Queue: 3 jobs
Job 1
Amino acid sequence: MSQIRLQQLRKVFGKVVAVRDLSLEIADGEFIVFLGPSGCGKTTTLRCIAGLEQVDTGRVFIGDRDVTLRPPGQRGIAMVFQSYAVFPHMSVFENIAFGLRLRREPAGEISARVTAAAELMQIENLLDRFPSQLSGGQRQRVAVARAIVMRPEVLLMDEPLSNLDALLRLQMRAELRRLHREIRSTTVYVTHDQVEALSLGDRIAVMKDGEIVQCDTPARVYDSPATRFVGSFIGSPPMNFIEGTLQRFDGTLAVVAESVRIPLPPTLRPHTGAGPVVVGIRPEHIAVGGEAAADAIPATIIVVEPIGPQQLLTIQVGKTLLKASVPAESSIAEGQAVWLRFEPSRIRLMDAGSGVALSDTGSDVRGPGSARA
Ligand code: ATP
């Protein structure tokens, strides 16, 4: 079993708290992504799991073993870094074989395992080449092959695709998914690219200021962000936010914002009855057009941007600008007055001060792992 348990990890560099009492449980065979802005502590947390960084306090468990004080070589891990770190003077075969030779594995075993790893990464025809004769994507595949040939219990990857161009990233992303399905190593993957996180992770741990703000499935992180920060970090364009006041009208709840009333569905049960709140709604959950009605919001189209199958609209509601996406064939013009409707089941409410979700998202703000740890 190679589950990972992080218990109250803390790592401080001078005055900077890089990792702030972080707890998380990662299941055996799970693919978990650490996602967050630059400097939020993703790499430091990964390096603490690897043993490349000594924690100030807290414990790291891999499987049933407390590895907190063990060196990287005794943790059963393999790492792939952003810089491919392949040896330029060695052939692809020797690069992949490097770790096995260090372990003094028999030659026949090395040959069989290198060939199998190369086939998995589809570079078996490149084994005689040197890194200078490879493309960036091929070099990165060598780096991944070198990690998986060790059959690690745990595979740690730090922004492995960020040096590749957009098309190669897309290809490698799909390959990493396939690879994980085949080898099932418990995988921790660091990125600041939310699309990569959404497409790769069984769960995403969204980090900010050394802490996990939300740890959940990609669908739940996207649909039910635990905080305003998560809603704004994930999604392109991000979630829209309108500040207003929660009020009760004839037994039903509504938010009054920008002198319009946004009715809330009865299923939305905020943990508070009244007061300043923020309404969150994704661009694809705003219906644009239609008739004037009690639940419709008057607005003006400011900009129409065609983006392939869709048009991205910038819409003014009072002083607030919103983004909505509508099909490319919708006939909407800049300057047009329209009525908006927010899909009721998609409305999210957040506390105006803390930004924490007020309606029940069903997910622990600090992640399911933290709750158990
Ligand atoms: P990025 O996406 O830019 O790589 P990150 O989320 O991985 O960022 P970390 O590299 O973990 O962030 O850094 C977290 C904080 O710790 C940052 O403020 C960083 O400057 C600081 N830090 C990291 N390593 C060191 C170090 N060796 N010495 C001093 N400060 C460090």
Job 2
Amino acid sequence: MFITFEGPEGSGKTSQITLLANTLRQKGYKVFTTREPGGTLIGDQVRSILLSRMENKNMNPRAEILLFCAARAQLVDEVIRPHLAQGEVVLCDRYADSSLAYQGYGHGLDIDFLSRLLDFATGGLKPDLTLLMDIDPEVGLRRRMNSGGEWNRLDAYELAFHKRVRLGYLKMADENSDRWKVIDAGQPPEVVQTSLINVVLSQLKNFTRK
Ligand code: TYD
């Protein structure tokens, strides 16, 4: 089963994924975790071009989307598909929906065109379940600043951009509620983790029955 995690900055996705992966492993599932952009040798090189705040300040949105797609195409073929083929649960920290949210709703690139481009990049591979870790971007960005974590080129976009990203995510979740589940990531971390585990376990049960 292919599960993706989406959300604005500072939603706590990364640490929640680590906890969830451990719980699923304890329950006997074979779990593989990866992240975007990156996750392969080629993808990690593209990641450093995309996120470098100093060198690549004037990257335009079209260059940005093509680089995200290049890293993603590599990740799908080299990593995600082979692990799914082994029957593993693949947890991916961001995927194609990040491009729709950031480059589409955030930067205003055409959503229909982007969807076709993303289909090309992924070879049509869609997640079975997408968890939206929803948080007000003001709260998320403050969290990220206070945690002293990495502050990348995209974090530095203005607040209005991040607000458009969040609304875009909520719209996608609303339009496709079969695949998307929304988690309130503003709650205490242990509450968020419990909600995540409950949603994922119930979906995994249904999934194996198919
Ligand atoms: P990262 O440090 O991995 O952020 P996070 O912990 O929030 O996931 O940086 C990834 C950044 O790239 C993040 O700002 C979201 C952005 N992004 C896009 O704009 N489009 C995409 O397709 C992807 C995968 C990420």
Job 3
Amino acid sequence: MTVKVKANANIALVKYWGKREPKLNLPAVGSISATLDNLNTETEISIATSGNDEIIYNGKPANEKEYGRISNFLNSFRKEFGVKDFFSINTINNFPSGAGLASSASGFAALAAGVNKISNTRISDRELSILARKGSGSAARSIFGGFVEMKTGEGVDSHTDYAEQIAPANHWDLSVVILVTSGKQKKISSTDGMNATAYSSPYYNSWISSSKFDLYEAKKAIKQKDFEKLADVTEFSTLKMHGLAMAARPGIIYWNGTTLDLINEVKDMRTAGSPVFFTIDAGPQLKIFTPSENVTKIKDHFSDRNGIETIIVSGIGDGVKIVE
Ligand code: 2P0
């Protein structure tokens, strides 16, 4: 039997950065995201007969790092649920991996749903988000569609940190225009970047204490479909996260020159009345949210521009699905 799963990536509006407990991958702050309908991972899983996990990642045998991360996740799944099988996995992203486009989010969400299905462990969506979180913090959010909140608890309890839907995909007709300024793999992974930040950035405690209000404001803005408010809190959370990382020692800078030019341009566009706001994750890509009716205009505005390699457009999408 082969199980085929499809999971969408997500983009955070209120950012996750920092771990309260690295082993269980418990986030230090809650986060809020939108699941995307055009950036996804498709994963096929069957039971391996070789006595080892077999992993094909984007068409090639997984390298040591990819294999290690995925097999660690599978080991923890087997241990927790008493599963004995090894798996044969073929996983492919329809967008650049490891470039700040949330490939680990869709990847581990697909894997969690896939192993749950093939092993018949029948866990709830909440438990599935807890399982996906152990692979990658942002993956917990990709279990659900639409607008999603990642909740955090306190202390070292795996069951307090899970994602929940705030509103379904059809609640608000927004789209994202992703300006890819470099499809190359980032030099500092999110995990390494957040650990270095927690260890050395003097702003880390303020980041944690100020995040609760961002979550409150963003949730309210989403429920009320208040674009200006969501623009304000998203750009605030983005720049706060990057400022925090830049203040690590040595400083972590995920941007390039084009990223900065585009930040300024999007701010100017909004001041001039265009409904746009930006967000940036652990990479140099600028992601512009806008009402869907405006998306072609925004895409055309940035096309044929020096410094932009590709433009990807996406609407808001659904949660993880077993395809067959
Ligand atoms: C987010 N990012 O909220 C933030 C904003 C990147 C910037 O979640 O270490 O790959 O696997 O839990 O989920 C990327 O971090 O990190 C991320 P791990 P993950 O989307």
